[in-house]
């Protein structure tokens, strides 16, 4: 149980959270029609006769959507139901051309599974398993546009019929942080699997947030459901605001009503949308236009074989096989693009060094996380759009490893690489940044510095050994950072002894 | 030259192929017959004489060019107005679709055009195929060409394919498409002395057919005789990837396989169909049918279909349930009627549009369907009905272990007069009592004329077959047809 508590006038309150996440399945075609699914297209240009529910039109399942739902289920170790069925959820709305949504109520394609979250990467004690009740496949609705005409609403059916997975968690989360971690982890898994792009700002992933509060140890309280929350941050805010609102309401003598709410990010508050009394009777029944979905072992085997290494397994491997720190392993596996980038960098670096990956993994990870991420952050760029490729990064790392440049020079080189897109070798050559191991030059620099700082030499010899760093710094400065640091150390020690 | 309108599919097609007459002459003759009969029979919602002539001209040109002709080449037909036809208004006989012109062609109608058929027009029907008398159309009743010898009272052509049955019986179309959800091909065929076959569920694509009850709807052929039905059904049937419930099976050559010899075949006579108070003429025609099939060499076996009595209530739960959902799309938003009162919001628009657009029978079934699917009633009605449906299907499966086909009457009576039953929906629903069980089981079934009853009106006999065995159904029907020698036809009074 989370130790997150809301402090009310009457004492502490626990929060109970469940999430229903709608994830748009990554395919080129809609769930039951051949229409395209491009984001941001002109209104009503991605609409087939089926999507517009013309008379006599019939749905035909797009098996790629089924496959992606099955792969997603496998990725969370869920039960895959070899027999599932589509049901109709009946209600009238202008964005719902058929007058029903094709969904799966009675026999979802994916049953019970679980997702592990960890609130603190450095603390394994913060691990927690969040249950997933089910994943089912359903159609999205269209969109109403209220700002196109003074008295009328327009309907855009581009999204009508787009395939969604609804991923329903157990009410296993107890704090905004846990809800946020669950959603982030789920998004990471979906991106690894490739079943959803996870772009919450484009609406391809959104969450219905179920929140209730109770005194510790009490029965579950009445929950509210805040619909269509479209970022991790907003989900966390909804949990907090809604829990506080419910506590204040109860402590003022009111009762929480089961209702649907909407989140207003501008005011950071939730508002009632409709109460249970107005709730529809959806009259679910099996869709007679569709046969049950029956999956055979060969199909399931193909789905399983097509799964990539998943984030938890990857992180585990980074720690044990590559010897990375828990923190680094976690950072590198938090996002599928980062992990892909890292693995190419690692392979190239190992190849250049003619060493096993494990021998160069730490260097590569540290450079990626502290150097490249830092530099990209400064530029406001993302790894996906980085002007430096993993191969270019490996070239830079090789120059450090073979002593051509020092670590500090490498920072300058990286900046130039990002600026110009040129390779590390080219830049080092052009800018004359090669590290020097010329004993004569280094000795000459040392002699000059020791002569100019005779007093400090005396102090050093008198026992103030901390001054050694000063001499190193001065030497490097005189050599414009290009002296081989090992050689500087060695020669300084000799001269000062 | 003989009156071309007296000919059926095979004779017209062969005559055109041989050059006895041209397809254009055929189309012209039927166009004229349609025009002459339309005011009296109201069989069509729209007539499309130009379409008929256009298809005919193509057939004539193809023939002149020596090209191979299709199996329906030169045959103009009536198209039930439940099939979407590209560029021609498609209404399901409802105000809510008045003026709706599809941009697409239903799979079945396209297959018929591809086979060389032409379109005389869109045939009237019960609104959304809901009815047994064609009295629920928003475009007026269809009148049967048949009259009792005793009076001139207008008679029902049956329903819902009433325009189809009326047109074929009146010889203003050599054949017509029908759809059958609970008997809508077979009962009107029986009422008007023609043949009609509903194939196995899934044989004909439902793509582009306005849906009534998806798990039951099935297109079929209505024509003068069994051979014509076989030819036409062969042209209509076939797997369609656009319909998930379509059967992925090759279409057998039913016409070539026609064989009226019933030697070695067993015909089941289910005792549960012999109802108390059965019309004695219907009972007699059933006995005639039994004697004819025996004469054709069949062995007659009494069988039991114990859940038969639950078929009608089961049907009137499942069909309206599906319809209530299927008809939700007629909401005034995208096409068809929109009634938007001043200052109305979305909900008001729905209410006004659907109140104005749907007829009373459609509304009744939407309400029944909504009720049986609603929370608290779903299990008691819909779930229960599905269980019973399974039992009814199992009855047939077990019976077909013993017999090859089943012979029963098509309808409990001959045609009734317009208005006679329309006041009492339950009495109207009883018309489907013999046709509904095969629909619930998805089985092929055919009605053929058996003779006239005491009032001089046609009665039909129904052959029900195993799933996918349309051939067995057609063959037994052919054996009946050969012995019934049904030559009666309505006098031309229009």
Would you write up a description of this structure?
The complex is a heterodimer of chains A (497) and B (494). With 497 residues, chain A is of the alpha+beta class. Chain A has three domains: 6-301, no CATH class; 309-431, no CATH class; 439-496, Arc Repressor Mutant, subunit A (Orthogonal Bundle), CATH 1.10.10. Chain A is 40% helix and 19% strand. Chain A is built from 15 helices and 16 strands. Chain A has helices spanning 63-75, 176-193, 232-251, 297-305, 311-320, 326-333, 336-353, 357-379, 390-401, 407-420, 424-431, 439-452, 454-461, 467-478, 485-496; strands at residues 6-8, 11-24, 83-84, 87-90, 100-103, 113-118, 127-139, 143-145, 154-156, 163-169, 205-214, 224-229, 259-264, 269-275, 285-286, 293-294. In chain A, strands 1, 2, 6, 7, 10, 11, 12, 13 and 14 form a nine-stranded mixed β-sheet that branches. A three-stranded antiparallel β-sheet of chain A has the order 5-4-15, with no helix packed on it. Chain A has a two-stranded antiparallel ribbon with strand order 3-16. In chain A, α1 packs across α4, α12 packs across α14 (467-478) and α14 (467-478) packs across α15. Chain A is elongated. Chain A starts with 5 loop residues before the first strand and ends with a helix. In chain A, 41% of the residues are buried. The mean pLDDT of chain A is 93. With 494 residues, chain B is of the alpha/beta class. Chain B has a domain at 4-259 and 443-484: Alpha-Beta Complex (Amidase signature (AS) enzymes). Chain B has 15 helices and eleven strands. In chain B, the strands form two sheets. Chain B has an eight-stranded mixed β-sheet with strand order 4-6-5-10-11-9-7-8, with helices on both faces. In chain B, strands 1-3-2 form a three-stranded mixed β-sheet, with helices on both faces. In chain B, α4 links the parallel β2 (76-80) and β3. In chain B, α8 (280-295) crosses α15 and α9 (311-326) crosses α12 (378-402). The model of chain B has no long low-confidence stretch (mean pLDDT 97). Chains A and B meet through loops of A and α9 and α10 of B.
């Amino acid at each position: 149980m989370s130790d997150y508590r809301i402090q009310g006038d009457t004492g502490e309150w626990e929060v109970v959270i469940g999430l229903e996440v709608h994830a748009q399945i990554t395919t080129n075609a809609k769930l039951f029609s051949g229409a395209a699914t491009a984001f941001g297209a002109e209104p009503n240009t991605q609409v087939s006769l089926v999507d517009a529910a013309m008379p006599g039109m019939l749905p035909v399942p797009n098996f790629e959507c089924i496959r992606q739902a099955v792969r997603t289920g496998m990725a969370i170790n869920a039960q895959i139901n070899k027999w599932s069925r589509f049901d109709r959820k009946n209600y009238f709305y202008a964005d719902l051309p058929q007058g029903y949504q094709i969904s799966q109520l009675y026999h979802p394609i994916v049953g019970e599974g679980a997702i592990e979250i960890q609130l603190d990467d450095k603390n394994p004690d913060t691990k927690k398993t969040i249950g997933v009740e089910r994943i089912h496949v359903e159609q999205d609705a269209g969109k109403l546009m209220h700002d196109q005409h003074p008295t009328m609403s327009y309907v855009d059916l581009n999204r009508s019929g787009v395939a969604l997975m609804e991923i329903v968690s157990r009410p296993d989360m107890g704090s905004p942080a846990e809800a946020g971690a669950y959603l982030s982890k789920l998004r990471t898994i979906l991106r690894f699997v490739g079943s959803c792009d996870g772009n919450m700002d484009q609406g391809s992933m959104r969450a219905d947030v179920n929140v209730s509060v109770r005194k510790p140890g009490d029965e579950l309280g009445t929950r509210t459901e805040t619909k269509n929350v479209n970022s991790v941050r907003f989900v966390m805010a909804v949990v907090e605001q809604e829990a506080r609102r419910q506590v204040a309401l109860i402590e003022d003598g009111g009762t929480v009503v089961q209702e649907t709410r909407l989140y207003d990010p501008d005011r950071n508050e939730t508002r009632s949308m409709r109460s249970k009394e107005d709730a529809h009777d959806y009259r679910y029944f099996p869709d007679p236009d569709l046969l049950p979905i029956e999956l055979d072992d060969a199909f399931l085997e193909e789905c399983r074989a097509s799964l990539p290494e998943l984030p938890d397994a990857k992180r585990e491997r980074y720690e044990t096989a590559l010897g990375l720190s828990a923190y680094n392993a976690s950072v590198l596996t938090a996002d599928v693009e980062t992990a892909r980038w890292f693995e190419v960098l690692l392979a190239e670096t190992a190849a250049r060094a003619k060493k096993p990956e494990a021998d160069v993994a730490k260097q590569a990870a540290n450079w990626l996380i502290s150097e490249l991420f830092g530099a990209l952050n400064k530029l406001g760029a993302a790894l996906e759009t980085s002007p430096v490729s993993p191969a270019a990064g490996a070239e830079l790392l090789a120059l450090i490893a073979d002593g051509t440049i020092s670590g500090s020079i490498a920072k300058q080189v990286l900046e130039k690489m990002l600026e110009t897109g040129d390779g590390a070798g080219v830049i080092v050559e052009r800018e004359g940044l090669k590290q020097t191991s010329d004993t004569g030059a280094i000795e000459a620099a040392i002699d000059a510095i020791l002569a100019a700082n005779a007093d400090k030499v005396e102090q050093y010899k008198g026992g103030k050994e901390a001054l050694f760093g000063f001499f190193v710094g001065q030497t490097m400065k005189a050599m414009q950072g290009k002296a081989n640091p090992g050689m500087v150390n060695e020669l300084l020690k000799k001269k000062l002894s | 030259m003989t009156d071309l309108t007296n000919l059926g599919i095979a004779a017209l097609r062969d005559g055109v192929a041989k050059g006895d007459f041209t397809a254009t002459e055929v189309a012209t003759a039927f166009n004229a017959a349609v025009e002459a009969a339309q005011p009296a029979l109201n069989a069509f919602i729209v007539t499309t004489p130009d379409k008929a002539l256009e298809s005919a001209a193509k057939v004539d040109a193809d023939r002149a060019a020596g090209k191979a002709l299709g199996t329906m080449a030169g045959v103009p037909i009536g198209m039930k107005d439940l099939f979407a036809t590209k560029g021609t208004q498609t209404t399901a006989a409802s105000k809510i679709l008045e003026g709706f012109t599809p941009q697409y062609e239903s799979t079945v109608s396209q297959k018929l055009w591809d086979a060389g058929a032409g379109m005389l027009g869109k045939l009237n029907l019960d609104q959304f195929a809901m009815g047994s008398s064609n009295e629920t159309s928003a475009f007026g009743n269809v009148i049967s060409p048949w009259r009792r010898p005793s009076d001139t009272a207008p008679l029902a052509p049956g329903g819902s394919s009433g325009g189809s049955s009326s047109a074929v019986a009146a010889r203003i179309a050599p054949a017509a498409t029908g759809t059958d959800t609970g008997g809508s091909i077979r009962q009107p065929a029986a009422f008007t002395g023609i043949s009609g076959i509903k194939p196995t569920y899934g044989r004909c694509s439902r793509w582009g057919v306005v849906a009534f009850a998806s798990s039951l709807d099935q297109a079929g052929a209505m024509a003068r005789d069994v051979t014509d039905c076989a030819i036409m059904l062969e042209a209509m049937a076939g797997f369609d990837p656009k319909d998930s419930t379509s059967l992925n099976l090759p279409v057998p050559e039913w016409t070539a396989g026609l064989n009226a010899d019933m030697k070695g075949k067993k015909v089941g006579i289910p005792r549960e169909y012999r109802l108390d108070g059965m019309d004695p003429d219907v009972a007699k025609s059933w006995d005639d049918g039994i004697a004819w099939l025996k004469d054709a060499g069949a062995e007659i076996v009494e069988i039991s279909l114990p859940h038969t009595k639950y078929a009608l209530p089961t049907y009137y739960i499942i069909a309206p349930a599906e319809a209530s959902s299927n008809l939700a799309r007629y909401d005034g938003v995208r096409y068809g009627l929109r009634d938007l009162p001043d200052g109305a919001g979305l909900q008001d628009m729905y209410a006004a549009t659907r109140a104005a657009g749907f007829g009373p029978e459609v509304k009744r079934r939407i309400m029944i369907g909504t009720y049986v699917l609603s929370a608290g009633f779903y299990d008691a009605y819909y779930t229960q009905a599905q269980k019973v449906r399974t039992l009814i299907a199992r009855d047939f499966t077990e019976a077909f272990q013993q017999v090859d086909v089943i012979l029963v009457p098509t309808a409990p009576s001959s045609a009734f007069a317009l208005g006679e039953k329309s006041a009492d929906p339950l009495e109207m629903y009883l018309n489907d009592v013999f046709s509904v069980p095969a629909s619930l089981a998805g089985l092929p079934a055919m009605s053929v004329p058996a003779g006239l009853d005491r009032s001089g009106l046609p009665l039909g006999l129904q052959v029900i077959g195993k799933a996918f065995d349309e051939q067995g159904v057609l063959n037994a029907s052919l054996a009946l047809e050969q012995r019934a020698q049904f030559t009666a036809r309505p006098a031309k009074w229009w």
